[in-house]
Amino acid sequence: MESRLRLSKKGMETYTRAVAILKISKKPNGKNRRELRTANRALRLEIHKAVIKDLSRRNAKSILEIGCGDGELLVKLASIGNFRSSHLFGIDRSRKGIRIARKRSKRVRFAVGRSNRIPYKIKFDIIFTVLSFHEWENGYESIPGILARLSPGGSFIIYDTMPMSTRSLLVYKKRGVKLTVLKDRILVKIVFSKPSSTAQYI
Ligand SMILES: C[S@@+](CC[C@H](N)C(=O)[O-])C[C@H]1O[C@@H](n2cnc3c(N)ncnc32)[C@H](O)[C@@H]1O
User: Fold this and answer.
1) Domains held by the chain: number
2) Which residues form the domain of 74?
3) Is the residue at 161 inside a domain?
4) What pLDDT is recorded for position 202?
5) Confidence band, pLDDT 50/70/90 cuts, at residue 201
6) Pocket perturbation via mutation, ligand 1, pick of 135, 141, 159 by most ligand atoms within 8 A of CB
7) CA 170 to ligand 1 centroid distance, Å
8) Residue 165 maps to which CATH number?
9) Assigned domain for 159 exists
10) In whole angstroms, what is the distance from residue 188 CA to residue 202 CA?
């Protein structure tokens, strides 16, 4: 059974702080803006911790993050024992993000790419995306292409904070993909698991 993605107490506190700042001033400026930036960054790091813990339960040889930004999460993942022998890849549509990511690590392979244009030929055991899916201009339409890039038995995992319609995802169940949607307060985790035998997959 899929495990829940749990945000720490500190994560919830930073979220509450960010919401409070936004309530006080709709257009934060000066001190408010700095506070909001600090709260958002702290929240992002707490979400990264929860994601890393969740990914650590899996055994994967090849892992791709879509929308990896400046590569912060993948670089952390690379330093964790479970992933020492995994092949780690990250793509983002932002050239600037990828430039920074490449400077951060030689161990992880980073490239400019998009959710609907993955610039690698290999198949992945896990493809995941964190706090990015809600920005994808072609969100739901990218999914079939991503599932096609999974190895048999592989998973595509969306981690995000935005409320999103999951009804349109049900179609994948009919195609033999196991779909799990888990929500925990502000976090949502959606897992598409491809069957081990691709013969079932249409
Ligand atoms: C809020 S940032 C999150 C970055 C990183 N995942 C993190 O948690 O720190 C969202 C990222 O998604 C990237 N992005 C948005 N749409 C994308 C798409 N269709 N394909 C690839 N990257 C995309 C943006 O360039 C940005 O770096």
Assistant:
1) 1
2) 58-200
3) yes
4) 46
5) low
6) 135
7) 24
8) 3.40.50.150
9) yes
10) 27
Phi, psi of 84 (to 5 degrees): -55, -40
Q: What pTM does this model have?
A: 0.92
Tokens of 164: 């999103």
Question: Percentage of the chain with pLDDT > 90?
Answer: 54
Whether 24 is covered by a domain: the verdict is: no
Q: How far is CA 23 from CA 18, 27, 28, 32, 51, in A?
A: 9, 9, 10, 11, 28
Q: Tell me which of 7, 128, 132, 137 to substitute to probe ligand 1's pocket, judged by most ligand atoms within 8 Å of the beta carbon.
A: 132
Q: How many CA atoms lie within 13 A of 170 on its CB side?
A: 4
Looking at the domain assignment, is residue 153 inside a domain?
A: yes
CB neighbourhood size of 84 (10 A)? 9
Which residues sit with their C-beta closer than 6 Å to ligand 1? 44, 66-69, 72-73, 92-94, 97, 114-115, 130-132, 135-137
What is the pairing mode between strands 150-160 and 187-193? Answer: antiparallel
- pLDDT (0 to 100) of residue 100: 98
At 200, the pLDDT band (50, 70, 90 cuts) reads: low
Axis crossing angle, helix 30-56 with helix 9-24, rounded to the nearest 10: 150
Q: Is 34 helix (H, G, I), strand (E, B) or coil?
A: helix
